[in-house]
Design brief:
The protein is built from two helices and five strands, in the order αβββαββ. The chain is of the alpha+beta class.
């Protein structure tokens, strides 16, 4: 199985896990020219942007560690564009979550990082 197919399979597993735990999935693999967000959903009154990370083992670090500050910044840019194009203002409650899959263990970290404000360049 190639990396893209494997990633899609793990994202599917994460989406099923989130839905089972009460998240309403709105979109998967949302893309714009800023980048991509794996899952967008609603949960506990928040519009939630979810990054899914998989690691077969901890040999190369944990799945949570793979969501670097640079990746967080990119997710925030994509999320800002998503909200803008859908007319969702600053008053929309937003949360950034990470689903980390390490081997067969799934960990859902709610509010994994704060919004990072960036200037458009």
């Amino acid at each position: 199985m190639n990396k893209r197919a494997a990633g899609a399979a793990w994202e599917q597993k994460a989406a099923e896990y989130l839905a089972f735990h009460g998240m309403e999935i709105r979109e998967r693999n949302y893309q714009n020219r800023q980048g991509e967000i794996d899952i967008i959903g609603c949960h506990e009154g928040y519009l939630v942007f979810v990054e899914v990370k998989y690691r077969r083992s901890s040999e190369k670090g944990s799945a949570l560690e793979a969501v670097t500050t640079g990746k967080q910044r990119q997710i925030c840019k994509v999320a800002d564009y998503y909200r803008y194009t859908r007319g969702l203002g600053e008053s929309t409650a937003v949360r950034y979550d990470v689903v980390a899959i390490q081997g067969d263990k799934i960990e859902w970290l709610k509010n994994a990082f704060p919004h990072i404000y960036t200037r458009n360049r």
